[in-house]
Amino acid sequence: MRVQPYRVSMVSSVITVLIFMPVLFYPPLLFTPQISTSVRVGLFILLVAYLFGATKRFRKKDLFIVSLLAVLFSSLIVINMDSLDGLVTAGSVTLTLVFAYALSRAVEMNDRIKNNLVKLYTSFFILVPICSFMSIIFLSIFGELNLFNIHSGGQNFLHTPFGVILEKDVLGFGIYRSFFFFQEPVVLALFYAANIFLVAPNLEKQSRFFSTVNIIGGLLTFSYFFIVLSIILYFSKTTILSRENASRRLLLACFIIIIIVTTGFFSSSSMDDRIIRMNIFFPVADKMSALQFLFGQGFMQETGFGKSFSAGFLLAIYEIGIVNLVVLMLLTVILTNISKHIFILFFFTMLVFEPTKLPLFWVLVIVLSVLLQDKRRIKSSSILQCSPLVYKKSC
Fold first, then answer.
1. CB–CB of 125/391 below 8 Å?
2. Rounded to 5°, angle at Cα 280 from 278 and 286
3. CA 313 → CA 63, 118, 318, 366, distances in Å?
4. pLDDT digits (tens, 9 = 90+) for 333-351
5. What's residue 367's pLDDT?
6. pLDDT value, residue 7
7. Which residues lie below 8 Å from residue 7, measured CB to CB, with a gap of 6+?
8. Has residue 11 got a pLDDT over 80?
9. How many CB atoms lie within 10 A of CB 215?
10. Beta bridge partners of 173
């Protein structure tokens, strides 16, 4: 009996969901404490092994990537030798980067994994904003219900079967910041902005619907970072595509961002707290030696202020140093095929928080890298077909 194509496709999709489930057991989602560490890490290692096993060929850049990973791992081990927690974190960070490398290889050389990954990612980020909206509806009608026993800090965090909500008071009015089961709204805002301005325009199907639900989800976060990053991505994209009036576009983007920040429109967000956390870096940096600036102080170190500084670049300089930060940025550029759009996304996210420790961030940028590559390939093919040497009536 012949198996029908749609059944094969459905089975393949289910298998892909099960294979990539370990990504959801890591931050930025809140399911990490619900899963045993040994189970979570074991499943993640199996995922990495599967991705490596799905590709057989050796690329020219593989040796360079492996060398960078080896240098980074060795450095992280050395600077964290005094702390067991630091060594565990160093191992976790390295495993996440190895996952990113394995995933980039798999999608480049295995079309089935590439297509299933894009479908899985877009389906997930259709589900996330819908659940965020349903979370507010559920809370308004039935009240709080922590069905999955999710632990999130603070009394203002409310739980529903559809996600977590942060209750804020703005000018005497209570608002709900809904952000699914992510750690905080600002992290989810990164994905929403990238989905709207970078992922959606490169999708073949459901592009408008995907963009619309992500816009709704972004607005429900009430995150200043969503608005600011959206403006940056919009203007940077139009500037890269068209060099005309590029400086004017960038100046206009900067002006809009300054207006948003200075007017306090997003006082409901965590921006004030993040600025305080950023300022903690400077008195701490005064006590750092030149060697610590270059190679960092290690993970899980106390700042002495009761808070850590959450800004990505500053945290990276403190933890891994400037040299390792450069290696990390170089890895990001290579793994995402030297994409200007992805580097802009990475750079401005690093001003707010450190995304490279998050497996889901690597899924985003590698999906985006695949979509941008496919679009460039189609564009190049159409230009070739319409050239005077290969002229077609359709051109």
1. no
2. 120
3. 27, 29, 9, 21
4. 999 887 888 999 999 999 8
5. 94
6. 44
7. none
8. no
9. 18
10. 170
228-260 pLDDT, tens digit per residue, is: 899 888 887 765 545 555 565 666 666 665 655
134 touches 179 (CB < 8 A): no
- The torsion angle over the Cα atoms of residues 50, 368, 124 and 28, rounded to 10 degrees, is 80
CA torsion, ordered 142, 144, 150, 151, to nearest 10 deg: 170
Cα–Cα distance, 71 to 292 (Å, whole number): 17
Alpha carbon separation from 309 to 77, 177, 182 (Å, rounded): 22, 23, 20
Q: What is the DSSP string of 254-294?
A: HHHHHHHHHHTTTTTSSHHHHHHHHHHHHHHHTT--HHHHH
Measured CA to CA, the distance from residue 115 to residue 133 in angstroms comes to 28
- Over residues 8-27, mean pLDDT: 77
- Overall residue count recorded for the chain in this entry: 395
Give the helix/strand (H/E) hosting 21. Answer: none
Angle subtended at Cα 130 by Cα 128 and Cα 132, rounded to the nearest 5 degrees: 70
Quote the DSSP letter at residue 337: T
Q: Tens digits of per-residue pLDDT, 97-106?
A: 999 999 999 9
Q: CB of 105 within 8 A of CB of 362?
A: no
More confident residue, 74 or 155: 74
CA 24 from centroid of its chain's CA atoms: 13
* Cα-Cα end-to-end distance for the chain: 44
> Tokens 């877009």, residue?
122
Q: What is the dihedral of CA 189, 41, 303, 29, to 10 degrees?
A: 20
- Is the peptide bond between 388 and the residue preceding it cis, with omega within 30 degrees of 0? no
| pLDDT single digits (tens) 97-141 | 999 999 999 998 888 889 889 999 999 999 999 999 999 999 999
- Residue type at 328? L
